[in-house]
Write a structure and sequence with these properties.
The complex is a heterodimer of chains A (363) and B (360).
Chain A lengths: L10 H26 L3 H6 L8 E11 L10 E3 L2 E3 L1 H6 L1 E3 L2 E7 L4 E10 L7 H8 L2 E5 L5 E5 L4 H31 L5 H10 L6 H14 L5 H24 L4 H9 L4 H12 L1 H17 L2 H6 L9 H11 L4 H21 L1 H9 L6
Antiparallel strand pairs in A: 1-6, 2-3, 4-5, 5-6, 7-8
Chain B lengths: L2 H35 L4 H28 L3 H34 L13 H8 L1 H34 L3 H9 L6 H12 L10 H8 L15 H26 L3 H9 L4 H12 L1 H16 L3 H6 L9 H10 L4 H28 L4
Classes of the chains: A alpha+beta (363), B mainly alpha (360).
Chain lengths: 363, 360
């Protein structure tokens, strides 16, 4: 691609504008990352950007006014006079700033600019979130017992247990279907394919309630199987469409000769099609995995309040709702939930990007 | 195929098929019940469940394909495609197509689904103030969100194409795609955080104060503008998607056409509107429809940021509320159907697109 760069004179403007946009895009995430390492008290008192070196007024000296100075009259400090209001808001005196430190005690603080960076960063937030926060409970007899809240680790494993099959199952099902739609001829092929594609745009809200009713009567609610099936069905139209685009582009003679040799369609599919489709499978796999991993609505409805199966997004949403001020827990929990998708994203970016473009770019 | 094999197959094949069917039903049923009642270590359960989920589906295809191959070839050839598409069709039929029809049916009934009310719910949701707000907000999301995502995506794709650090820039813009809405909600709650006074821990208010303004409660008090601050989150997350696809399409514009235009003295802006835009128009349509569909269904952002309060309700959150809090099944279903009707034109365009690409 580098060889195709268009040479233009005003390249530095392009670089600058793009740089500014990228900077803006990064800031929110950086803020979260920095905050997640700050002690709870710090987060609530100062902005996260204060951990970076910045100039701030620091107390250098204190002037105590004598008792006979009338505070309602202009006050003389260091040879100049200032009004009470000026001293309340802070007033510049040369390089320094004068501000009331304690009006009742008649103390004026002399401040000067200096570089400061709050460097109190800690891993405690992560510890608390991962293993559960420790609460100290006082018993009726005055004895203290320590109890642990639930941590994120259980939810992490739950999410993984849901996400892996909910990625593999629809991809397998969709690939078989895509192979049949692309290379086998059978009555009803066209109609069924059109129905599947039409399902691409159906909002899943339409399906939630009837499915919930079925799941409840079958005992599938809150079970792994239930949520796998739900995610598989909701992801199926897109995955089928995508796999169809890929599989239908494979050269025809490739498996025609295999078929002549007496290989069954199942053998052709698992020995030829699957290995050939690895790039496509990988890219759509990442996509589906991210979708399931990040899902909130489907879990909210099909898992409900069953703590054993709860996923991370639900845990964090609970934290947001019930403890909106526990920023130290929220920020680190949010960051933990981002680790897996971000790692996958950066490791497999090439596939991911290629996968997104599958079929949609031509023309 | 010799005659002996043919005469043997008919009855036996059907028998084999039935055995395979029953076998699969029993095995998977038993495994399911084992997992439902198991009290094993969660890690062990998780691992076993993953193996079952993945291997189980493959085994399903394997056993049924094998059973079908026991039929005479003419027959097996006819059945096999249905074995291959069967699971997909069954799953979609059960979990998407039928539910959509059942929801449509429910939308003609009252709150507890026992009295037929005809179009009553449809009339009601357009006159109910809360629901009308939800519809209005959804329109805002679709128009502003989609427009901004597409415009920004296009702009960044063009800029990145001409910059010296294309890969890094694209990674940065694309990264929020990997973040869940819930986590993004936390991120942005932190940006929009408001407290009275001059010391702010929310970035936006800190900037406003540094510029000499008054701090604002962006997502709560600033109605109806708070909707735009929520939409901003969507833009932050989805622009990367549009950008990646546009970027690929722009690289497909033949270099010689661009060169010819430059030789003729066309400026960059003219080239952009006269050559690049027409060339990538198909992609433009695809991306736009994808994002429209996506924004129509928007739920998580609003749920996490405001819970739908402060006039930020959208159809999906209102749907959730009607169903799970007010237990008004009539309204809930009607809202879902209104969403479906809203995406109907998009279905049409998508199908036309596929036909054009030579799918059918």
């Amino acid at each position: 691609m580098a060889g195709r760069k268009r040479k233009k004179g005003k390249k530095w403007i392009v670089n600058l504008v793009l740089g500014v946009i990228c900077f803006i895009w990064l800031i929110p995430t950086v803020g979260l990352l920095v905050s997640s390492f700050r002690p709870a008290a710090d987060i609530l008192q100062t902005g996260w950007w204060k951990v970076f070196p910045h100039q701030e007024w620091k107390a250098a000296d204190t002037i105590k006014l004598s008792k006979d100075v009338d505070l309602r009259q202009p006050i003389e400090v260091k040879g100049k006079t200032y009004t009470d209001d000026q001293l309340k808001a802070g007033v510049k005196a040369g390089d320094d700033r004068l501000i009331w430190e304690n009006r009742r005690n008649r103390e004026i603080s002399v401040q000067e600019q200096g570089w400061v960076a709050s460097s109190t960063l800690t891993l405690d937030n992560y510890k608390n979130v991962i293993s559960g926060k420790e609460y100290t409970l006082k018993g009726a007899d005055g004895s203290e017992t320590k109890e642990k809240g639930t941590g994120l680790s259980q939810a992490f494993w739950n999410t993984l247990t849901i996400a892996i099959p909910a990625t593999v199952i629809p991809i397998l099902i969709a690939s078989f279907a895509a192979y049949a739609f692309a290379w086998l001829r059978f009555p009803g092929r066209k109609t069924l394919f059109v129905v599947i594609i039409a399902m691409l745009v159906v909002p899943l809200q339409v399906a939630l309630i009837p499915v919930l009713k079925d799941f409840t009567s079958l005992g599938l609610n809150g079970s792994y199987l239930g949520i796998w099936l739900a995610h598989s069905a909701f992801g199926l139209p897109l995955v089928t469409y995508f796999m169809y685009n890929f599989i239908s582009q494979l050269p025809k003679d490739l498996f025609e000769s295999a078929f002549m040799d007496g290989a069954s369609h199942f053998t052709i599919f698992s020995k030829l099609i699957l290995p050939l489709s690895v790039p496509a499978l990988a890219s759509i796999g990442i996509f589906q995995f991210l979708w399931v991993w990040n899902d909130y609505l489907v879990s909210l409805i099909f898992i409900g309040n069953q703590p054993g199966v709860q996923v991370m997004s639900m845990k964090i949403a609970d934290l947001v709702g019930s403890r909106g001020n526990d920023w130290h827990l929220l920020t680190s929990a949010a960051f933990i939930s981002m680790l897996m998708p971000l790692a996958i994203f950066f490791l497999l970016q090439k596939y991911f990007v290629r996968g997104l473009m599958g079929g949609s770019v031509k023309g | 195929m010799d005659t002996q094999a043919k005469t043997k197959s008919g009855f036996t094949a059907v028998l084999i098929f039935l055995v395979v069917l029953v076998f699969n039903l029993i095995v998977h049923g038993l495994i399911f019940m084992f997992f439902r009642d198991s009290t094993l270590n969660p890690l062990v359960t998780a691992l076993a469940a993953v193996i079952w989920g993945v291997v189980g589906v493959y085994f399903l295809y394997l056993s049924f394909s094998w059973a079908v191959e026991q039929f005479p070839q003419q027959i097996s050839r006819k059945i096999l495609p249905y074995i291959f598409i069967g699971p997909a069709v069954l799953l979609l039929g059960w979990l998407l197509v039928l539910p959509a029809l059942r929801t449509l049916y429910l939308s003609f009934f009252n709150a507890s689904s026992d009295k037929f009310v005809g179009l009553g719910n449809y009339l009601a949701i357009f006159s109910d103030r809360l629901l009308a707000t939800a519809l209005r907000n959804n329109l805002l999301w679709v128009f502003v969100g989609t427009l901004a995502c597409v415009a920004f995506g296009l702009l960044i794709a063009i800029l990145a194409d001409r910059s010296s650090y294309e890969r890094i820039a694209k990674s940065i813009i694309f990264m929020p795609m990997a973040i869940s809405f819930v986590a993004a909600g936390v991120i942005w709650k932190f940006v929009y955080y408001y407290q009275p006074g001059t010391e702010q821990i929310g970035l936006l208010n800190a900037i406003v104060i540094a510029l000499g303004g008054e701090p604002q409660a962006w997502v709560t008090m600033l109605q109806p503008w708070n909707n735009f601050f929520l939409i901003l989150i969507l833009i932050w997350m989805q622009t990367g998607f549009a950008m990646v696809i546009f970027s690929a399409a722009i690289k497909g514009v033949p270099e010689d056409i661009l060169e010819a235009a430059r030789v003729d003295g066309a400026g960059e802006i003219r080239i952009f509107f006269r050559i690049i835009i027409p060339f990538i128009s198909t992609t433009l349509l695809t991306v736009t429809t994808t994002i429209i569909v996506f924004t129509l269904k928007i739920f998580d952002v609003v749920m996490v940021m405001t819970g739908g309060q402060y006039d930020t309700e959208v159809v999906a959150t209102q749907f959730y509320r009607q169903f799970f809090m007010y237990r008004n099944f009539g309204y809930g279903s009607t809202l879902a159907i209104v969403l479906l009707i809203a995406v109907l034109p998009v279905i049409y365009f998508n199908l036309r697109q596929i036909r054009k690409q030579g799918g059918f």
